[in-house]
Amino acid sequence: MKKRAPVSDIMTKTVITLNYKDELETAEKLFKTKKIRHIPVVSGDTIKGMLSYTDLLRISFADAIDEDDDTVDTVVYNMFTIEQVMAKNLVSVPSTTTIKEVAEILATKEFHALPIVDNDKLVGIVTTTDLIKYLLDQYK
C-alpha cells in the first residue's frame, strides 16, 4: 500500500455538479439517472455547497418513487431551494492531500463525500465508496 498516495489517485475528476439556482427536481433526476449520492453545488467553478440524496429524502418521498421512473412529484420540491437544503459549511481538501488523511477526515465526520478544491476551483470529489474500492484494490 502506498502510504503517501494523493487523493487525486482515487477521486472522481469528471464531477457532476448542480448550479445553486437549479431546481431540486433536477437534482433528484441526476441522483437517479447517474446512480450517485452526492452532488457538489457550484457557482461557476466555485463550490457553494454539497447536496446529498439523503438531504432530498429528508424533505420528500423521493425513495418511494420507482428509481426507473422519470416522473417526480415536485410539490415538496417547490417549497425549497437547493441552497436551503444543501450542506453549506463544507470541509474540502486539495488534490495533494493523502488518501490516509482523507480517510481520517471521513472516518471522524458525519458526511460521506469531500470536495477536492485546488486554487478555489472544484477539481474532484472523493467518497467513502472511493476509499473502500481503493482498500479492496490493495488486496488483489
UniProtKB/TrEMBL annotation:
The keyword Oxidoreductase does not apply. InterPro entries: CBS_dom, CBS_dom_sf, Diverse_CBS-Domain. SMART domains: CBS. Pfam families: CBS. Keywords: CBS domain. Residues 11-67, 86-140 form the CBS domain. The keyword rRNA processing does not apply. This is CBS domain-containing protein. It comes from Bizionia sediminis.
